[in-house]
Fold these 3 entries.
Entry 1:
Amino acid sequence: MAKTLTQKILEKHLVLGEYKPGNEIGIRIDQTLTQDATGTMAYLQFEAMGLDTVKSDLSVSYVDHNTIQIGFENADDHRYLLTVAAKYGIYYSRAGNGICHQVHLERFGKPGTTLLGSDSHTPTGGGIGQIAIGAGGLDVALAMAGEPFYLTCPRVIKINLTGKLQPWVSAKDVILKILELFTTKGNVGCVFEYAGPGVKTLTVPERATIANMGAECGVTTSIFPSDEEARKFLKAQAREDDWQELTADPDAEYFKVVDLDLSELVPLTATPHSPGNISPVKDLEGTEVNQVCVGSCTNSSFRDLMVVAETLKGKHVHPHVSFVMAPGSKQVVDMLARNGSLADLIESGIRLAENACGFCIGNSQSPQTNAVSLRTSNRNFLGRSGTKSANVYLVSPETAAAAAITGTITDPRDLGVPYPNVDMPEKFVIDDSMILPPSDDPDSIEIYRGPNIGEPPSNNPMPQTINGVVAIRVDDYTTTDHIIPAGSRMKYRSNVPKYSEFLFEVVDPDFYSRAKDIKESGRQNIIVGGISYGQGSSREHAALCPMYMGVRAVLAKSFERIHTANLINFGIVPLTFKSEADFDAIEQGDNLEIPNIREKIANGETLVVKDTTKGTEFEVEYDLSDRAKEIVLAGGMLSLIKNKKSN
Ligand code: MIC
Ligand code: SF4
């Protein structure tokens, strides 16, 4: 039978279940990646599993998120990560070497393999024909321990590309168009598989940009074929041996086919405060711009920064614009430095930031009050930039460069200058000296633990009956950035009690004290949410910190994939409303009882929620595999592992 590319790779890695869309399957993971903000907890969990070394073919620990180092916490965490990597057979990419997804694509991504990363933008690897999936840190820790990764066997959507991008239109506009077509909700359990004659017109970094931001649609991953272009890229990275040709069978059947003519696309932007609010740049022309930021794992490749450098060459950044550039990797800066473009950029007046996430995660370069900030990154959720009143627009490097020159939102096609066609280098500068291999003598390595490192908290088994209080009721599209902010708070990632103080800070700063009172009164906390609850980042702290605060259940209209898995992993049950009216009727502060929840989940029976404040009751749904039920009833994965060990 003819197969999609996704099916070919997944079937090769299948260890449990049958390849049938909708089924739960377990796959072998070849490569893992972590970044520091999710990595500390992931490695604490890995350590708790008691293994001598990782079982994956390759595991890399990147330091790219918390590189600000105000206070001792970040630096201590880096040292912890360094020693863990050395001891357990993990490569360690030092702070300064670049953003995990960019570096992984350059130096490690391999067509036909599986990659699991504790970051939602891990699908960037799909640009090189890898099945690359984002997950919570605990799932990545399990993959490092050689356990399968469980997922819903995906429905594969073919995106059939034809034509060729016009000058000043680039890969970012392609994915923004796809976001317009698919939106940020309703794509859970799908994979975007790119095919068609348009594919060969896109370079690997452009494909990576498109695959990267599929995360914003909520798909499990996105994948491009591994073709001649992929071979050229790997050859230029001196890794031609990692190449193999991979495509779908010509008559493969898809869940859906969507045609996209690249030549018809125009410059697009995602307007505040969602990557799904798409508008043509032209419609916003003339809006004054205060800040322009180029970088992030979406648009920080050599190609992207060269387009900006060439567009700005000989010009100056507009006097009212602060223009920040954060290159994706040391390799990218090295290339720009050697070909002279870095000097041009500096002459133009850019503010050169570290090769790291930086502005994208809001730990630096927060814009001014009410600012208009144009960014090449992938998320513009309220408050993510660090300035709640700021309006962040997501754009291509081309549109960013145009605004940096004119000081207003400008369709780059209106700049009236020739489009800088950037050729891919035949050879990238290769220097892996910032990637430290694991130790030859692991026994000699002592793990460093600074005062910020705590024990990963675990949960108690699910009680017979939940007697809880609605500690918060949030709207549709509540993201993990709303649940637990990153930015300047992120340095407490390895200190769960402290980090929990910032839960729901952007939406309701009183949440913590309210939830604390409820917990101390011996009742459980319950969260009520709307559509697509838990969009965005993979941070398991959006489940771990609520668990620490005594949250036992989240009732929502719908959930996103990674967050659902995280809730289950930490013993919080995700329940779905059957009707909009039930959601509307619930208020913050309502007492909710879910009688016999243990038994009912174990037996697959209908769950009834009693609102004892209102004197009403309603049914809720749950979609838990037998494995997920076992985890949730045990009080989470760590409790389950402990139980299994002690039996
Ligand atoms: C993000 O872009 O939101 C992050 C920070 O990279 C997260 C991971 C995290 O919260 O540490 C992600 O995308 O998964
Ligand atoms: Fe880093 Fe931003 Fe990419 Fe997240 S989205 S990995 S914060 S660059």
Entry 2:
Amino acid sequence: MFETDAADVAQRSSTGSLPPAPRVDELVAAAHARYAPLDEGDVADYIPELAEADPAWFGLALVGVDGRAHTAGDADVAFSIQSISKAFVFALVCDELGHELVHERVGVNNTGLPFNSVIALELNDGSPMNSMVNAGAIATTALVPAADAEDRWRRIRDGLSRFAGRPLDLDDVVHRSESLTNHRNRALARLLQSYGRLDVDPDETVDVYTRQCSLSVTAVDLAIMGATLADGGVNPVTGERVVSAEACRDTLALLASCGLYERSGEWLFEIGMPAKSGVAGGLVAVAPGKGAIGTFSPRLDPAGNSVRGQRACAHLSRSLGLNLFASDPAGPAPAGAAGPIGGTTR
Ligand code: GLU
């Protein structure tokens, strides 16, 4: 079972807006203080460079659709975005190519299997199922309209930088480290090609995908990127429109069902926010119309999700009223309003 231990935190409903800024600061600081001592989970080591992370790092940031940032701990420590890039590349592709095409070419259903599963592809006749698992993410990267691989990389880096509101740099060390060990992703790309699901060169596409995963971000960057999805595609810090409101809606729907891999259902049940995690320890969780949380802590659960990040999001989802499914009764209908069919009013 997914562990949150936030049951003692009062659940606010998701109606309305964020509480006043000093209260948000207080709750972000409280969530950070509560989970900083937690030392469950392990740092990822299947990409050798990631094993160098300090397990004690813990950054927390919340950015509202008013552009205001609330931070605690190591919110400015840089790390590689990894799988969280998948969410934003998906948004760019939705924006350029539209709802129908991504639905048809990649899919929007959960595989129920680990992020790098080969069996998932085989079981589904070569359909990658969704853009949040590695096979689907590689297929989605290949869909970014571009003249060649270099152009595709440039467009992805520019797009993700516009989400963050600053130019994002490639972490060369992480890129090199993953490039030497990403045999499984190369195999997935070849398999996609064998099923006629990849129209461009598989090795070049995996390299662009590996570069997008190696972009260097902070918890604050993630919160701004998420807040852009929460703000109908306009970056609330720079004021720039990055993608359409429809692309945000589609991305958030996919994150709700597939963002936390095979634990997505449990995550939604406990926390109720569209979210995406990455193996370097980043996590972004979005409250549409309100803002987003970005967290960084490299200790991961067995599915590859940051342990402290999940706990802090559970805490803030309850205390700030970010769970999409939490509502309060609207109260008695005003006098004179039409009652329900049958004539009675509540
Ligand atoms: N670059 C990583 C990979 O392809 C991303 C995985 C993740 O963050 O879940 O394995």
Entry 3:
Amino acid sequence: MSRNWPESVGIRAIEVLFPSQYVDQTELEQFDGASAGKYTIGLGQSKMGFCSDREDVNSLCLTVVARLLERHHIKHTEIGRLEVGTETIVDKSKSVKSVLMQLFAASGNTDIEGIDTTNACYGGTAALFNAINWIESSSWDGRYALAVCADIAVYAKGAARPTGGAGAIAMLVGPHAPLQLERGLRATHMEHAYDFYKPDLSSEYPTVDGKLSIQCYLSALDTCYRLYRQKFEKQQPQQSQLGLQNFDAIIFHTPFCKLVQKSVGRLSFNDFLLCSEQERAEKFAGLERFNAATLEGSYFDRDVEKAFLTQSAELFANKTKKSLLLANQVGNMYTPSVYSGLVSLLISEPASQLVGKRIGVFSYGSGLAASMYSIKVTQDASVFEKFVSKLDYVLPLLNAREKVAPEQFSELMEVREKNNHAAPYTPTGSISALFPGTYYLKDVDALHRRSYERTPSNISNGVH
Ligand code: HMG
């Protein structure tokens, strides 16, 4: 039987979750003895969300999936595929996906394909691509897919600790979506690197070479952007050469906000190197001294960085800054990070301004795996406005979080560290500090079996 591809496959609904508690980065600078401004200005971070021992990757995924299905009135039987992307591994065999099947038990729907995918922060994008691919394949049975990503990003005491965070995203994937992934416009770069990895299976903390990780991130960005440009130009030869002007917004995986600002400068530097002499004179006047600069030689070249940061400042302000809201307020969520950027953009821009627009997406996971692709926003303004209005809860919830002193944050990190993989174990973290409708770890029995409960719902605040 031949069947046409379903039209406009993409994201039909999106749900975000972040921790109910945070530590202030200015206070953390003082507590850590870092120079004033290092975390807030140097890294561009204001607050860092964190989870006590009451939450783990399973509970984050249970909460975000339950919320998405409830708030969007999706029946459990309407889901035919569920993919999870995470790097927060609590079991080397049993998947998070299998834990999520508890939510579907009452409906009797066990016919749900998909399983977990892991590669650092890239797993969420792999989950999304798998979900899209299924719907565009001969295996599709007409139901929706769910792409879920969640992580708890924690670092040992030291330079990397302020770049932690936590969160989860669930995306309902199907045809006729308000956010459509553009076909044929995916550019991927994968390579073997030891920039950030988790070889100690008994610890939540990664082994990280900070400087190398930044170089890997920027070089993967260069490669993906150049490949995306080639694919775009091949697919749309009638358009003028692709450059940053072809994106109405660009979102990035965000380990810390300052790196994203530098990344916009980096893309501008790529445009500079690739454009014609005439364009160079028009668009990049005054930057002729960099005509002989190279990508490889410039990862830590302060002159190149500064010049293109300045040159791209307006682009950054217009196309990317708004997408950094959650990253600035919560920190690095790992796999959900780039999708929290999407949510931030959607809630910060009047919906009418994004109708019919193209959003560039750069996803990066250490180790390394990276992709650049683009999302086209539907032309149907009323469909899009309805889609965005479902995110009305995000700002009030962000403002309802509880600030915790760095001393207490540090103690809670020690509790996580000491009891990682302990069994039997009963968590001690506060349940009343959690948002309504949050799944939490009740206990771990002597056989390492985890059980969860949920805080009461509160429909009035839109999150239940
Ligand atoms: P560090 O080496 O201690 O920091 O750690 P630094 O000394 O480089 O300072 C950071 C910035 O603050 C610098 O800015 C300083 O100048 C500035 P830059 O010069 O680079 O523009 N600074 C100040 N600014 C204002 N006032 C002050 C001040 N003091 C200094 N008083 C590092 C930084 C990011 C390396 C560390 O936090 C780390 O290792 N983090 C984890 C790794 C990471 O986030 N890497 C990013 C790319 S890899 C990635 O994205 C993947 C990842 O998400 C994992 C995954 O895929 O799963 C991490």
